[in-house]
Every structure is written in structure tokens, then in C-alpha cells.
Here is the input.
Amino acid sequence: MVNTELVVLDMAGTTVADDGLVIRAFTEAIGAAGVSEEDSRFAGMLDYVVETMGQSKIVVFRALLDGDEKLAQHANSAFQDAYAKLVADGHCEPIPGAEDTIQELRAQGVKVALTTGFAAGTQNAILDALGWHGLADTVLAPGEGVRGRPFPDLVLAAALRLEITDVRRIAVAGDTPSDVQTGLSAGASIVAGVLTGSAKKPELDAAGATHVLESVRDLPALLS
Here is the structure.
């Protein structure tokens, strides 16, 4: 096994407990776009949100709202506001052992990037709530010139920013098939699915995960 220089970790569901926050924020957001829980379209939209968990939220809203950019942006802003309020109200906890895992990896000389499908503002709200600014070597969210999952951009942008010598020296861990697809597309040697989020082992295996772990806490042992 090649020595790992960089570990790219997802946030919600992997290092940060979700506990249904995405669904709650989505319900408010899609309501702001004119689709209530009583609407006949709501159940199908909710299923799609679950299926695409981990992907950039603005991309998800564009798909749900038939490419109506103004409405998608409105829903995305409502999602960000709703999620940030849930975080500010104390509904944000780390996955047990996640912080220790990041510190352990960095102590071993491995660089760590925290990535998300949320907008940068939502990511920062989570980092604020957990006191995680500075915990990782870098944090990344989809934005200008960086596409969200399942594209490889978040992993490759982290590798460029942290001056990694070879993509084969990257390990990726996440709780969704989108996380797995991103790691594989970026050329990472280790692409681990974790079972603390939305996906089950068969889904992660089907996506091509090289390993499936109970938790991100198991990652240092895998890399040793």
C-alpha cells in the first residue's frame, strides 16, 4: 500500500452527525419554492434528495425544479438558512471519535481536508458550531471552478492546494455513493465508505468502495 499523504473526509454523515438535519432543512427549502409536504410531488422529491445525498445542493435543487435557476437559487438559499438555524440552535454534533481521528492523522504527518456538498456558508456555520476551524489542513465546498460530488473536483482541489505529489497517495472517506464516486474519479487508492450516514454497505459496495468501515474512527488503522 502506498504511503498516504492526504485524507479527504466528508462532513455530514462522516465526521459530523446528520440526525435528519438535511431532510428538515430540505423540507423548509422546498416549501419556500412552493412545494409543501402535502403536495403530490413532495415524496418523490424527498426520495431524490436521499438518493443524491452528498451532492452539491444547488445542483439537486436545479434537478428538482426543472432547471428553473431563479427558483433553484431561492430554494438553495432557504436550505442554507434553515440548516444554519438548526446548527445555531445546537443541532450539530461530531461523529464520536472524528475529531481525535483527524488529530491522529495529522500527528502522523498525513494532511486532512474536510469537504462537503453544502455551500461554503453552511460549512462555515458547522465549523463555527463545533469549534473546528483549524482542525483540518484545509476545508472545501463547491463553488466557482470547483464542482460538487460526484465530480472529482473537491478531492483534486485539496490535492493541489496541499501540494500532494500523487493522487494515488490520497485516501477518501464518506458515507454516500457520491463520496465514493468522487474518490474513484479522482484516482485515490483508498476510497472508504462509512456506515454512520445515509448509505448502507450494499450501496457503498455497489458504488465501488475499496473498503467499508463502521466509522471514520477505523480509518487510521486501515492506513497504518
Q: What stands out?
A: The CA atoms of residues 52 and 178 lie 7 Å apart. The chain has a mean pLDDT of 93. Residues 21-89 form one domain.
